[in-house]
Amino acid sequence: DHVLNLLRGEGSLPGAGDPAWDDCARQLVAEGLAGVALTLLARTGRLDLLPPSAAGTLTADVNKVRVSQTVLFHRFASLSEMLRSAGVEFIVHKGGALAPLVYARLEDRPMVDIDIVIRPGTWKQVRDLLVRGGYRLPQGAEEGFWLENYFNLSVSSKEDPPAHFDLHWGLTQEGRYHIETEELFSRAVAYDLGGSRLMRLSDEDLLLSLFLHLAYHYFEAHLIWLYDMKLVIEQWPIDW
Q1: Which of 142, 180, 217, 240 has the fewest CB atoms in 10 Å of its CB?
Q2: What are the φ/ψ torsions at residue 52 (nearest 5 degrees)?
Q3: SS3 (DSSP) at 15
Q4: Residue 89 CB neighbours (<10 A)
């Protein structure tokens, strides 16, 4: 498979101008890997393999990601400042930590939202802050359903176009298995995102959380989630 060969850095690829690149480009976009593909091809001096149509497909998607991320990170800066001003500690999870740390460019790791982990005991305080700040929460029974059955809640910024944030007070559904959230905070480490000093999961906790996320969302998995794991394992000294 040409897409997997490109991601692995080994095996054959279509020749220069081969129409097969158009199918590869569509697959890469569908899997959230357009930016990764362009970065890998540029790094190995093989961008000229792409016919204009495939290059256009990949570039258009990367430009779309770049615009959406600009909005998302801008809105996230406001959310972060609101939480920090109120003394609420939080951990940035998944793409919001992976994009600046293991990817060559932020736009190589597209995301539809930014995930953060809060302590379970701070949920009421955080909810009050969100409501006062005009954030959009699930309404009525829908919010109750999420709070009762899941470990996270999706909220949106008040501005249009809205940015989306997934607030976790744990990484599991308690009916299945348990991970102590307080231990995640005790092992969290600092990192920089857009000039802001934030906290992320430790290397091992982040990798394990990616495994859990894939297991939980196996029915709608994307190849970029496996690529996240590949980069973490290759670039960080994981204590197995």
Answers
A1: 240
A2: -55, -35
A3: coil
A4: 13
Residue spans of alpha helices (H) in the chain: 2-8, 20-30, 34-43, 52-85, 95-102, 123-132, 141-149, 181-187, 203-216, 223-235
Task: Report the residue count for the chain.
Answer: 240
Average confidence score pLDDT of the chain:
93
Q: Using an 8 Å Cβ cutoff, are 137 and 122 in contact? A: no
Q: Is 27 exposed, middle or buried (0-12, 13-18, 19+ CB in 10 A)?
A: middle
* Token pair for 7: 């991601």
Segment 37-54 shows an average pLDDT of: 97
pTM of the entire structure?
0.92
Angle between helices 223-235 and 95-102 (to 10 degrees): 50
Average pLDDT over residues 97-106: 97
By CB neighbour count within 10 A (0-12 exposed, 13-18 middle, 19+ buried), where does 198 fall? buried
CA distance 21 to 16: 9
Using DSSP's 3-state secondary structure scheme, residue 156 falls into strand
Residue 165 Cα distances to 5, 161, 215, angstroms: 34, 13, 21
Contact (CB, 8 A) for 98 and 232:
yes
Q: What is the pLDDT of residue 8?
A: 94
Which residues, 6 or more positions from 125, have their beta carbon under 8 angstroms from its beta carbon? 86, 88
In angstroms, the CA 70 to CA 125 distance is 28
